[in-house]
């Protein structure tokens, strides 16, 4: 009798457990069928369409200010607005660019003629996006490793940004390599967690998350193989957590670094960069992700194009778009041409569109040169910590 009762209570416990497990599985499954899932997939596929990339123009007011001041333009709200108006109204930009990432201030700004920036972008066929992280903070320790902030109130902010016209978002996590002890397990896990939780919140609120794990190009003579090793490890952790958090992979875009050797090592050829980068992506990024949009990360404008071209020659049948989400590699010469002068407006727009066209061609393996900005050095910037983004 006692044995029978024991058996019954064991069975009840097992049934109870399996019900709980079934519930968990269903919840994960249901989240893939969430209200926004179909729209997110379409938006991500649109942005990752063949021959197009993203214009990253989401620098914080502080970083934009430094860039403007480097060409003698004062860091005022109206000058930041004018600079972004120059970018977004460039004639023909939409032939080569399918998304533009904006800073919060810019998302709500208007052009001189009163049109909202989001409407100008949409009229060019460019989806407006928004940087939603609030910048880097130093992690404990003496290595200068960072975590990214911005999860607080993120759901509410996403709702407001979507209402204003944003269709996708960006969150940049930076992982430092090239120094003994870097990256620490804490940095890898913490940044993977931040990206996954951010992506989950964005999808819940109707924004396609650009997931940006940047294994940053920094000082040191570390090899391209070392960058590839850590990049593979970091991306694999990120993908694992995206899965854990029920993120729909068809409804995200990835924005990683290309694999490059450290700044004090000899520069790698485009072929070497392409081999190491494609191998890393093949090992760690599922084909369900529609687009891999590389950041320029300090490469010169020409280097960014040539490396992208080599990537597409290396993997012409890659399961994802191998394309660009460049900030500095699209903006640097554009800004130097403008210098805040009305008379240079059209010439600056022309150089932006030429750079976008070159990268668009490279994204389908069709860039034959010459490059609009040949030569040119690396476009490096210090890591900004303490808030407000890059
Ligand atoms: P860069 O292309 O200048 O690296 O910027 C891309 C970006 O958005 C980094 O967060």
From TrEMBL:
Catalytic activity: beta-D-fructose 1,6-bisphosphate = D-glyceraldehyde 3-phosphate + dihydroxyacetone phosphate
Membrane-spanning parts: none
Annotated GO MF terms: fructose-bisphosphate aldolase activity
Record InterPro entries: Aldolase_I_AS, Aldolase_TIM, FBA_I
EC number: 4.1.2.13
GO terms for biological process, alphabetical: glycolytic process
Highest taxon in the source lineage: Eukaryota
Alphabetically ordered keywords of this record: Glycolysis, Lyase, Schiff base
Associated pathway: Carbohydrate degradation; glycolysis; D-glyceraldehyde 3-phosphate and glycerone phosphate from D-glucose: step 4/4
Record NCBIfam families: FrucBisAld_I (NF033379)
Recorded family membership: Belongs to the class I fructose-bisphosphate aldolase family.
PANTHER family: FRUCTOSE-BISPHOSPHATE ALDOLASE
Name of the protein described by the UniProt record: Fructose-bisphosphate aldolase
Organism: Gonium pectorale (Green alga)
Lineage of source species: Eukaryota, Viridiplantae, Chlorophyta, core chlorophytes, Chlorophyceae
């Amino acid at each position: 009798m006692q044995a029978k009762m024991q058996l019954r209570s064991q069975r009840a416990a097992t049934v109870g457990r399996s019900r709980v497990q079934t519930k968990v599985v269903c919840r994960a499954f249901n989240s893939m069928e969430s209200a926004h899932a179909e729209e997110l997939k379409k938006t991500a596929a649109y942005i990752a369409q063949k021959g197009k990339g993203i214009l990253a123009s989401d620098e914080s007011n502080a970083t934009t200010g430094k860039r403007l001041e480097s060409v003698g333009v004062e860091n005022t709200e109206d000058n930041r607005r004018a600079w972004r108006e120059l970018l977004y109204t460039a004639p023909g930009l939409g032939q080569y660019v399918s998304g533009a990432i904006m800073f919060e201030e810019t998302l709500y700004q208007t052009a001189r003629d009163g049109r909202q920036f989001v409407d100008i972008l949409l009229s060019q066929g460019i989806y407006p996006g928004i940087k939603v992280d609030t910048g880097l903070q130093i992690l404990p320790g003496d290595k200068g490793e960072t975590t990214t902030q911005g999860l607080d109130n993120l759901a509410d902010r996403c709702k407001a940004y979507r209402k204003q016209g944003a269709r996708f978002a960006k969150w940049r996590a930076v992982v430092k390599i090239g120094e003994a002890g870097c990256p620490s397990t804490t940095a890898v896990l913490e940044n993977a967690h931040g990206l996954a939780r951010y992506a989950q919140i964005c999808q819940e609120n109707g924004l396609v998350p650009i997931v940006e794990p940047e294994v940053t190009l920094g000082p040191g003579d570390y090899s391209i193989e070392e960058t590839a090793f850590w990049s593979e490890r970091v991306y694999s952790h990120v993908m694992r957590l995206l899965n854990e958090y029920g993120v729909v992979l068809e409804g995200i875009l990835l924005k990683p670094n290309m694999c490059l050797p450290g700044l004090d090592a000899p520069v790698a050829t485009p072929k070497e960069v392409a081999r190491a980068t494609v191998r890393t992506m093949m090992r760690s990024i599922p084909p369900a992700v529609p687009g891999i949009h590389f950041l320029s990360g300090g490469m010169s404008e020409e280097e960014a194009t040539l490396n992208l071209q080599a990537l597409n020659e290396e993997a012409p049948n890659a399961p994802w778009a191998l394309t660009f989400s460049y900030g500095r590699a699209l903006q640097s010469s554009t800004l130097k041409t403008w210098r805040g002068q009305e008379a240079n407006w059209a010439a600056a727009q022309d150089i932006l569109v030429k750079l976008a066209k070159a990268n668009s061609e490279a994204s389908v393996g069709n860039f034959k040169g010459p490059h609009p900005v040949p030569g040119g050095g690396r476009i490096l910037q210090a890591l900004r910590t303490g808030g407000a983004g890059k």
